[in-house]
Structures are given as structure tokens and as C-alpha cells.
Amino acid sequence: MSLIITDECINCDVCEPECPNNAISQGEEIYEIDPNLCTQCVGHYDEPQCQQVCPVDCIPLDASNPETHDQLYQKYLVITGKA
């Protein structure tokens, strides 16, 4: 699954630079995650970096975008041009 940023986001700006896929961007009110680019850092790190740095714990899994680890890895390969 990709991740999602909830409305508990305080716009602290720490998650965006941590995303290796550039999936996080400033939305109208809070940061947003593009599910087409989010791989939960599979292929880059062992754990999602945005979740690690978020001070308010507002980045859960997005249940509306279910993906297996293998699907996330395949997406990583496409995004990075290694496919």
C-alpha cells in the first residue's frame, strides 16, 4: 500500500525531502502523497522514511491503495528506471 498524510499534518516540512521517490508534495492545505510514486521506500530503505521523521505520526497506510511488497518493488524498479 502507498501511504497517506492525514489532516493531522502540521506542515512541518520534514517529510518531503526524505522521500526518495519525490512522492510527497505540498497540497492546498497539507502535504500529500502521490500513490503512483509511493513505494513505502521499498528498494531504497527498510522503512518508510517519512513515517520515521513525522513528529505527529500522521502518515498511515492508505487502505484505498492496497499493494504487496512485490508490487511496491516493481513500482520502485519502474520509477528508478531499473525495470
From TrEMBL:
This is 4Fe-4S ferredoxin. The gene is fdx1. Keywords: 4Fe-4S, Iron, Iron-sulfur, Metal-binding. InterPro entries: 4Fe4S_Fe-S-bd, 4Fe4S_Fe_S_CS, PSI_iron-sulfur_center, YfhL-like. NCBIfam families: di_4Fe-4S_YfhL (NF033683). Residues 1-29, 31-64 form the 4Fe-4S ferredoxin-type domain. Signal peptide: none annotated. PROSITE patterns: 4FE4S_FER_1 (PS00198), 4FE4S_FER_2 (PS51379). It comes from the Bacteria.
